[in-house]
Amino acid sequence: MPAKRTPDSVVSFKGFSEGILMSLMLHDFEFDKVIRKAVSIYKKKQDFFGANVDLYATGFDRELTDDEGGMVRKMFAYLIQKPVHTYRDNTPNSLQTSSLTQPTDTSFSSLNASSDNPEKVSSFSDPNEFLVIGKNVRAGVVVQSPGNIIVFGDIHSGAKVIAGKSLYVFGSIKGEAGFGQHPECKQAILACKEIKAMRIIAANQSLDNTITTLGETSIPVYIYLNEGDVSIVKITHD
Amino acid sequence: MGQIIVFTSGKGGVGKSTLVANIGTSIALAKKRVVVIDMDIGLRNLDMIIGLERKVKANIVDLTKNLCTLDDALVYDKRTQNYLALIAASQSDLKKDINLFKFHKVLNDLEEIFDYIIIDSPAGIEEGFNKSVFFAKKAIVVVNPEISSIRDADRVLALLENHRIKKEIFLLINRYRKDLSQRSYYISATEIIDLLHVPCIGIISEDERVLRQNNSGVPFVYQSSFSVSTEVKDVTDKIVGKTKSIKRNAPPSKSIWEKMKKNSI
User: A157 and B154 in contact by Cβ < 8 A?
Assistant: First the structure.
């Protein structure tokens, strides 16, 4: 029999780059009671958080639905006049959030498995999304976007960048990179200034052997994916 | 108001405590009031390196639990004319026993007394690390010229850069051997700075006499003939604002369009 959840564990607050992320338990308790508990805890901590900090709401194991988000907004506005945003993990802010948490289901294996799993595929809902990262992606950071990704910097060893469509890196790839991961993506490109990658995945194909034969190269490389076929082009000035 | 500086690394054994002890002593010898706090709860050793272990009567956990006063927890070092003070870690408690709100209050009290508050963070990126870095305005990431240390430092830098309290972040390269820097297998200081993209506040050489000094409880900065003492004093000067830190050898930043133009074929 599962242990009975105490009221204190139905809500947690943690800081992230955009403000305070409030995680709410969406099961076991009536949701309005969970929100009231969140309000009372927030009131106690608001001096510590600061008056101008933005408050985002999400669930412990999933994001809030529109109805749940609306309910949180209304109750916070009614009880303490505090605006609350509904947190969405596939916004550009997910870069900062993912860096604060350990990677969970964003591994390549889970992404590859996602094509057979409708629930996982649903995270790839908007392939037209465009994510621009203006800095280096450091070790432990996982960036994932259903559309194209442009990185103005390096992908460090130990970092992962996974694009549903194309990936352009104006720096070197030393970590793991994936492109063409969206199930509906037929054509995609990975372009980078330098490749010293640990692992490259094109759609569901691992390019480990190809990259090994390619060797570490300090010249720009384009990897094309066209209907499942992969071709690699080294760009030289000759 | 004192300045809160945290020394962290991610990887253990890179020399954080040794550097905290020596840089703390060096700042104190420059007649600045400084307190060093050992946050490695359960594995205290900063008191031994400074040579104050016999004077420790209370610790940081006692302080945050209101089991002692600030005066009880502060151990002053007479060799520095009491400019250096230490708050030791507890050996019998756990990292979770420190309440973050009460720790904040302790830091506020210390800011009124000291010019510099130096926190020695434990290894890892878990609870002890989070509590150590939380309120710091300046973070110094200690790194050794080895690949595992650099990877861990990179992970720590990602956490620090995205922390909700903005921090000034610097790199401090420790145990560096200039004689090996030309070897192909050795990672040079320039490579480390370029890999991590953070300004470097100093490079401390490897010196086996540091071990002897640590074991005798006398920080090596008292030995002015050691080259590492000079290097630590240079870092101290940068911390107290006498000189500027080393910038990485990166080209000036360009606009997005300039970058795209440059990289287009």
Answer: yes
Specify the pLDDT at position A102: 32
Q: Is B184 on the interface with A (CB under 8 A)?
A: no
Give the one of B154, B164, B259 whose C-beta lies nearest to A158's C-beta. Answer: B154
Does residue B101 carry a pLDDT above 60? yes
Highest mean pLDDT among A126-130, A190-194, B113-117: B113-117
**B265 in contact with chain A, both atoms CB, cutoff 8 A:** yes
How many Cβ atoms are within 10 Å of A108's Cβ, its own excluded? 17
Chain B residues with CB-CB distance to A17 below 8 A: 162, 164
User: What pLDDT does residue A210 have?
Assistant: 65
Lowest mean pLDDT among A162-171, B177-186, B205-214: B177-186
Task: Say if B182 is an interface residue toward chain A (CB within 8 Å).
Answer: no
Predicted confidence at residue A99, as pLDDT, reads 32
Whether residue B100 lies within 8 A of chain A, CB to CB, comes out as no
Q: Is the pLDDT of residue A35 over 80?
A: yes
Token pair of A46 as six digits: 């608001």
Half-sphere exposure of B134 (CA within 13 A, CB side): 21
Higher-confidence position of B198 and A62: B198
Residue-range definition of the domain harbouring residue B33? 3-263
Residue B58 CA to residue A45 CA, distance in Å, equals 29
Q: Which of residues 113-152 of B touch A (CB under 8 A)?
A: 151-152
The domain defined by A103-234 carries CATH number 1.10.260.30: no
ipTM over 0.90? The verdict is no
Give the span between the Cα atoms of A161 and B130, in whole angstroms.
25
Kindly determine whether residue B159 and residue A99, on different chains, have CB atoms separated by under 8 Å: yes
What pLDDT shows up at residue B211?
92
- Report how many domains make up chain B: 1
CATH number at residue B224: 3.40.50.300
Cα-to-chain-centroid distance, residue A224? 24
Query: Residue B165 above 90 pLDDT?
Result: no
Annotate A54-95 with DSSP letters as a single string: -EEEEESSSPPPHHHHHHHHHHHHHHH---EEEP-TTSTTHH
Inter-chain residue contact A157 with B151, CB threshold 8 Å: yes
> Where do the domains of chain A lie?
7-86, 103-234
Residue B54: both structure tokens together: 């016999």
